[in-house]
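Lab meeting notes turned into a lecture example. A postdoc, R.K., suggested we walk through two folding results consecutively so the class can see how the record format repeats. The first protein's sequence and structure tokens come next.
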Amino acid sequence: MAFDNFSLKIITDELKNQLDGATFGKPLCITPTDFAFPYSFDNADGTFRHGTFIFSLNPTSPFITYSFDRYEKLDNNTPFFNSLKKLTYAKVNRIEKLAGERIITINFDSNHNDLSELNTGYDLIIELFPNHPNAYLIAYPYEKIISLYKERTNLEKGIFLTRNASYTYPPSRELDLNDIKDVEDIKPFLSNACYKHLVENAKTQPFREILNKMMSSNELYICGKDILPYHFSDDKLQKIKPSEIYSKLVSDQKKLAKLDRIKELISLIEKSIKVVKKKQKNLQKDLESAKDHLKYLEYGQIIYLYQGDIKKGDKALIKDGYNIPLNPLFSAAQNANSYFKKYQKAKSAIEILSSLIIKAGDEAEYLDKKLMEIKDGSPRDLLELKSELLHEGYIKEKQGRHTIKEVSKRRTYDPHYLVLPKGKIGFGMNGLQNEDLTFKIAKKDDIFIHVKDYPGSHIVVLAGKDDEEVLHIAYELALYLSHLDSGTVMIARKKDVKKNPEKIGLVNILKYETKEIKYIRPSSISLFQRALKG
């Protein structure tokens, strides 16, 4: 998806109304490729004009817009983002679109109240070219690039855009209607989506008539992820305001921001899972080898049975379908005893390896659960989860950072609760909360629920255990927190649930019943979303 020149002109004209004379606040990074500035303007009548200016440098869909929504911000310490801070409290003089090109320029007066500010003003130049968008910050009076999103240098093509170089605009392409004879003549000014709609529309209406309507339009339309400057008589296209563009194109910004903040933690857990999976594979391979070595018991017995036929120096015993290698330096008894020792070693290895495989399975289940909890947890849940991972040895506390250690000193970790008209359900969002819920808060006859053979949260019905609706909601909640639409849940009394000492939050359920849940009701999903949001 890329914006065409006509859509960008409509957006730019609207941005002029919004940004003219406005003052920018501190920059925000709202996704790894999307940047924003809150802005405000005091109107003469005492009212305020404010919002958030946004530009996206996503290679697949670069765009520029404004919004009245609030956004989660990301940490960003790149030189480009830090340079944007120079525009804090700067005043917007003008905003322009280069004719016929997807290049937007915003000119600023610098913050004159900042005594350390040496530059008189700035240009923020945003190139919204598909596949290689870019942004440059030009300082005045020097008119040099002091920062840019990505350096572009190609001496063969005469491109040399880097810091301390001058920015040169490409020649503007004024659209002359006298030169436009058919659809192909205007194609260079359009996005692929706009071009396709124009071609299709031209099959039933005069091309020149459609072109005039499109060029005179001041409204935007959306179809999927495509923003178009005209409706093209297509009922599937819906009118959209410039201020709604970001929410339509990036509907999950808060989720993206959260995932970016925890990407290092997710990567760490995923690497740990790979290590455990490899360990399981190697242990299973060693177990199969050890089981194969149980045959050494028979080898020793056969050697004793035919020891009279074995002479020192023999390299093999071939009897009863067996071909048993022998050590020529050993006697028959020594060879037999050697195989008996190998058998005992294999027998001991099987016992040890079986135990290690169970432990590795517990660890794999534990890590799968942590990966799920990381993606769903609130900031408080994540901080506790980091404390848990610190305790388990998966992460190390950074010097100078005490927050995780402080959390790890707590004696209680409050779980979450879902309060219903006829009951109360507790659920944990990390291992620490799960253990406190199940082993400190729950009473012996409370109902414990967990998804069968799948990682998930501890669910405990603390009140209303005799109400079928409360129980059903608890079953659905267990599936929902395991990211499942359907499945089997285990139902047990808390007294039949015991701690698994291997990992925090793992349990062994001694006695349970099961129930199959075919789907989660939409009303329950809404209830869970509100509970997690709160």
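The second example is placed directly after the first for contrast:
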Amino acid sequence: MKKVLIPTKLDKEVSRILGDAGFAVVQNPEKTVADLAAENTDAEVIIVRSEKVTPEIMDKLPSLRLVVRAGAGFDNIDTKYARRKNVDVMNTPGANSNGVAEEVVALALAAYRKVVPADISTRAGKWEKSKFMGRELTGKTVGILGLGNIGRLLAKRLSGFEVKILAFDPVLSADKAAQLGVKLCSVEEIFSQADIVSLHIPENDSTRGMVNGKLLSLMKKGAMLINCARAGIVDEEAIRAAKAEKELIFCNDVYKKDAEGEKSVADIADIMLPHLGANTKEANFLAAKRAADQTVAYFKDGVTTCVVNKGVPDGMDEKFQTLASLLAGVAASYLGGEQIRRIETSFYGKLHAFGKWMLAPITGGISKDFDPYLSAADAMEFLKARGIEVVDREVDNEKHYGESVTIDLITTSGSVSVRGTLTENQLLLSRINKFDKIYLDLTGNHLFVEYSDAAGIIGKIASLLGANSINIIDIRAPQDLEQNHSLAVIKTNVPVPAALIEQIKADVKAVKAFSFSC
């Protein structure tokens, strides 16, 4: 009988389903994961919510085969160590989405109608109707950053208020956006036009601190910002400054640390909640049910659909997955945010047999909203939901490309094609469009500048970089003779700031200019 440890206040439905399926369940939210593991060293499964599953915990359980996070995010679990221990890690994506979407609506209504201060005032025996003059949600313009499960449900929940919805999602097609009843816009357009902006994007190197002074300066006077995503996305000091200047309404449910103690946003948040997004009976029940059902299916039928730390098949070097992700990232950067309609791939040599193992890394490369550790089925579902077609082409190995990867991203107005390979254990970009034989190591920081071929351009770029104390480590400068274009690919010691990229683009009259870091 397989033993399951549940050191969390998860709905008892999880114990019922597992018990009926013949599992021995130890559910005790009063004990720590470490203590429960020490007392049950024969356990094969742990199901948690926000509790941390560290290498030390896993080492206490020699029979451990599966860790399930009853929720979407799984950064509380050391997935890489789990992989080394041959332990699968699952999540239950979507189980909490409706709870978070409804919370956003609740925050918007509560802030507009001043529900919290009015309640406090009335309980104190006061009658301050004029002080609590509110606003209506109906007819407003709402901006949603990120149209994953939560963002889509939020758009659906808001539809009854007859709002206009603007949305940003870098991999959502215009056709799919139309089906959802939203208008795709840039982040800047959303912040300048929306009455309410709601954040539903992950926190990573590209999104950390993205809601900064520049974006907040675009907002309407009296606009509202709602953060139920991750604390690090917003620049708290910038919000502090915008409160006075813009009369910004700020509603918050996420913090750097989920724990008791003073919160750094206490002086700027109009409403702040203790990370209640998924804290509903329904979400708790659904997360419990999915965690139990997935555990049963995993052991009974070998279903691994929601495993987020899958390894690679025998015979495949996992570095090719990293290569595919980086190539997709370069291609997406080249497109500069254009909506992708189709992905076409070619895997040469022995790699052709492993094409499906490349799809998740490629999807992660074009969208930070997708975790590259998920499966090909998850990636296909993610792309399909955004109206993106996937074509894995038959290859002609007579071209003698060896074991290499080609990725084409197609938009309504154009396309980009990149190829790369592994050489001496290095991840190399070998071609962009007709710029061939680049052979660039993709690790580090890179500046790409495409321009009409002319003398002195690279010198101008180098001069601008030097003037900004940026050192050049390597330069590649292939040509496209048909278009009479050149491509300067410059590896730098630090990332090139966006403002400097725009200056370089203007000064050399570049066709394209973008950066890419790994």
